[in-house]
Model the fold of this input.
Amino acid sequence: MNRNLTGWLLLLPAALLLVTFTHYPALGTLYHSLFSTPKAGRAAVWVGLDNYQAMAADPVFWQSLKNNLLFALGTIPTSIALALAMALLVNGKLRGRAFLRLSYFTPTILPMIAVANIWLFFFTPGYGLLEQVTGLFGLPTHNWLGSRDTALACLIAVTIWKEAGFFMIFYLAALQSIAPVLGEAASLEGAGRWYFFRRVTFPLLMPTTLFVLVNAVINSFRLVDHIVVMTRGGPDNASQLLLYYIYDVGFKFWDTAYAAALTMVLLVILAAFALGQFVLLDRRVHYR
Amino acid sequence: MTFARAAATTLALGLALLAGIALAQPTTEITFYYPIAVGGPITRIVDGYAEQFSKEHPSIRVKPVYTGTYQESIVKALTAYRSGEPPTTAILLSTDMFTLIDEDAIVPWDELAKAADEAAWMKAFFPAFMKNSQTGGKTWGIPFQRSTIVLYWNKEIFKEAGLDPNKPPATWAEQVELAKKLTKRDASGNVTRWGVQVPSSGFPYWLFQGFTTQNDVLLMNEAGTQTHFDDPKVIEALQYWVDLSARHKVMAPGVIEWGTTPKDFFEKKTAMMWTTTGNLTNVRNNARFEFGVAMLPAGRHRGSPTGGGNFYVFKKAPAAQQQAAVKFAKWMTSPERAAQWGIDTGYVAVRPDAWQTAAMKKYVADFPAAAVARDQLQYAVAELSTHENQRVTKALNDGLQAALTGAKSPAQAMKDAQAEAERILRPYRR
Done:
């Protein structure tokens, strides 16, 4: 009995935090998504699935969902591959290693809003950094953020730049924890570097890869700071992402019920991704 | 021992002091939310005003709270209102009027400012600024930091292109004609400098209102329940805007970023730009060449929308605080202060008598460009504002960007935007 009580008490702080900041808001969102938005003089009324039906008929929702999937596809594999490559590079014996590590990690330390403002000028047509480079090759000037074809790609580039350094830290930590005897044994056996990486290093890094992957997926739905500065979802929704649209609906249109319904969709997508990753990949991950 | 005694004495003294203050002045404290939308040491200026006001009115204490951008400010104000603790007064976009009315969050000024001098004060502003502040026969906002769109031009480039540097385009036709001469291409045909630049990111509807007003058409009715996006004159105005890049090739194609437009102008990547009068001080400080400021070119006539922020008073605040807010707003918009605020920021001083003050007269004599926005006010219309304002505005913005990026024809884009606006506004016509 007493032991039981101690157990529950130990659990209490964590449980309390989880319930207050995770479970209660999620259930509250679900609840509000089934009602109409309260307005002055009109209290919220039960509307059932009306908000979800409206969503199915909302072209901007579908556009932002499609954009978000493209955004995820564009950012996740590239940033993880880059992170791994950079970690391998700075893990080796190298002149100025500390400096290199720092410079890879710098994007993570910088506040996103400030960074987005700098990138805004990188992409500026005519005299932006990017245009100065393409100008050297005599390429015509292009309105990167102002055209429907390239706006989203520009945001993807900024995100990769931002994320890769962050993920590198995890890979670097994991690489350092791999026992050097494995490398020595492999070289005695005459294994090549690529073979060693493929059969030893990479499998040992799998737990880290899984962790990074989950984070990358979440981030691809969560990172919207740079949109606020760089495109505000434009031109004509070409760079609209789900979370930014939720912000638009919730805090610009003040349609809180519809925003709640959109949030539920985002929650379900993220939960499905996380669950899928843990269930499918966990079997293939080798934990020590 | 001695420490404890000292602490006790200090505490007792402090309490006595506090009690003394409380007894001496039964003060009304009001909270005042304000946003910042232009460069400069604005927080210092506003906090200074609040302090000075409190000094002159010992019974009122103003607590100024800087609340970020306009967008962040309305989010904070409405969230605070919903939780039952609204600010007493706030400066929010003039276009937020319908949103605030629909949320039942604000009180009309006519119900508060009933004294004779206060009634006179409410009539002291430029009529153009009141168009966005009144609906249904009531005044919901008091103009404070207001702006309009003007044309800036680079006199050096005009000279270089063999044009009269003191003659900006006065009509749509001249704007195209001059811009053609000002656009510069290199040997391989790539543009190195554009003739004119009208930004279209973020809030293209506001700049578009320049074109529509010049084409003699309004985008919405005064009640904020009906839009006219598919009016032939609106489509014609959009066609002109699109043609600047698509047909005449004097403006960069695609959506042009609002934030980098002044920089483009400083870097001589564009010879002329449309932007807010709020950028006047910025341009004056950063342009390393002679520049001019003019009214926007005329279509059927001159025209520009107004923009910027108004004072609002919130419901749920105690009556004494609301009365104090009236005194504060009246003090903040007195002729001398309106003039000083305009000089410090570039906003248009909101009342005619502010332009008659000695400080403003001296400023205009040194820098005549400052008076252009005032002179343009006679042609100004209210900024687009309806019920469900930001949603309707987004429908128009999306349509404008679709047309400017070539995804839709102007007629199709405006037809779609109007259909969406109809869907949103229908419930408000009952």
